[in-house]
Design goal:
single chain; 161 residues; alpha/beta; five-stranded parallel sheet; 6 helices; 15% strand; globular
């Protein structure tokens, strides 16, 4: 059975991020961000070119799946709900129901997940990657759930300590 993990940026530094991937046996990272940069020097390691270089040095493959990223409009919908609740995207704990519904209908329902399943390593795991600390606050959890339900993929979430 294929193993899938999810992981975010927030709460990790470059070293603890790579350590978490290695301990989980991750051999391929699936980047599902629309924009592959993170603001702030604390997270500069997660910007695309630096991240890809670090992953390559660690023997971990990289695949950007922009088609699975939420659109700018969908992100704005989530940001409006965050503002209404008085939370920032770095402290969000869950996705807005309207965001979940629209992401599922507008992005996930049209996504071809078969190439992901075909590319999952037979030994080790792949990891869905975005920025939010908690998978429940990120669309990567919706992708992982869909893969688990439709493809029987075993999902686990990597979190910072």
């Amino acid at each position: 059975m294929h193993q899938l993990r999810t992981i975010g940026v927030y709460g990790f530094d470059a070293s603890s991020f790579l350590d978490s991937l290695n301990k989980a046996g991750v051999t391929m990272l699936l980047d599902v961000r629309q924009r592959r940069g993170v603001r702030g020097t604390q997270y500069a390691w997660a910007n695309s070119q630096r991240l890809q270089a670090s992953l390559a040095a660690a023997g971990i493959g990289y695949w950007h799946r922009r088609d699975l990223a939420p659109t700018t409009e969908l992100r704005q919908l989530q940001y409006a709900e965050d503002a209404r609740q008085g939370v920032g995207k770095r402290t969000r704990r869950e996705l807005a129901p309207a965001y979940v519904d629209r992401y599922t209908a507008e992005v996930l329902a049209h996504a071809d997940l078969e190439p992901i399943v075909s590319a999952l390593p037979s030994v080790g795991a792949a990891a869905l990657f975005c920025v939010e600390r908690d998978p429940e606050a990120c669309h990567r959890s919706l992708i992982a759930q869909r893969l688990a339900e439709q493809q029987g993929v075993t999902v686990g979430h990597l979190r910072p300590r």
